[in-house]
Amino acid sequence: AQSVTQLGSHVSVSEGALVLLRCNYSSSVPPYLFWYVQYPNQGLQLLLKYTTGATLVKGINGFEAEFKKSETSFHLTKPSAHMSDAAEYFCAVSEVSGNTPLVFGKGTRLSVIA
Amino acid sequence: EPEVTQTPSHQVTQMGQEVILRCVPISNHLYFYWYRQILGQKVEFLVSFYNNEISEKSEIFDDQFSVERPDGSNFTLKIRSTKLEDSAMYFCASSESWRGNTDTQYFGPGTRLTVL
């Protein structure tokens, strides 16, 4: 069975500092990997996804993530945090075969301090 | 930009009552999903729906749950007899292609269900 672990339920960074949100997964097959963001009172919005090809994936709002198969990781980074990045971030995985549902991590709340 | 909408944003109900959560998926999408998130826990898959029938469901989706696409635009989740443990945020999502796992699932803002 697939699972996703997000280290740190709450991460706090200073404005302009590096953002690093960690995600590790377990899957019996090469998975598809996703990062979603949820701003207050809004739905889950896709930040980026990895399906095949280049392992470094760039998303919206300056975020990127790198698929590392050997480490079963898909960490999300942004070089310089902005106040508007404060939100809940969810890592998710789905199997390559069929229309399997997304399996989510518990989420990481990012706070950005001025 | 097209978006998934959900109503109501917050529903309060008494234990044992029936509730219907409503969703309007993006208009050209073919796959529809319900997920839920109990406070402090993971977002969990409930059910997926394609071509007017359930394509997959989780063990959470027992006989008290049902889904329906009553017309060309709405997608509903019914909970027949609510329990305290049904209190959660319920998210609707939709994706464009039958290849749902490669397509992006677009999520609505959620309905917070509180069972008293």
Verbal overview:
- The complex is a heterodimer of chains A (114) and B (116).
- Chain A has 114 residues and is mostly beta strands.
- Chain A has strands spanning 3-7, 10-14, 19-26, 32-38, 44-50, 56-58, 64-68, 73-78, 87-94, 103-104, 108-113.
- Chain A starts with a strand and ends with a strand.
- Chain B contains no helices and eleven strands.
- In chain B, the strands form two sheets. In chain B, strands 2, 4, 5, 6, 9, 10 and 11 form a seven-stranded mixed sheet that branches.
- By secondary structure, chain B is mainly β.
- The model of chain B has no long low-confidence stretch (mean pLDDT 91).
- The relative contact order of chain B is 0.34.
- Chain B is 0% helix and 49% strand.
- Chain A binds chain B through residues 4, 32, 36, 41-46, 49, 51, 90, 92, 94-107, and chain B through 3-4, 6, 9, 31, 33, 35, 41-45, 48, 50, 55-56, 58, 91, 93, 98-102, 104-110.
Q: Could you give a short description of this structure?
A:
The complex is a heterodimer of chains A (114) and B (116). Chain A has 114 residues and is an all-beta fold.
Biggest sheet record of chain B:
7 strands, mixed
* Whole-angstrom Rg of chain B: 13 Å
Look at the structure and give the mean pLDDT of chain B: 91
Give the overall shape of chain A, derived from the CA principal axes. globular
What is the number of beta strands of chain B?
A: 11
What oligomeric state do the depicted chains represent? heterodimer
Which sequence of SSEs, written as H and E, runs from N to C of chain A? EEEEEEEEEEE
Instruction: Give the overall average pLDDT of chain A.
Output: 91
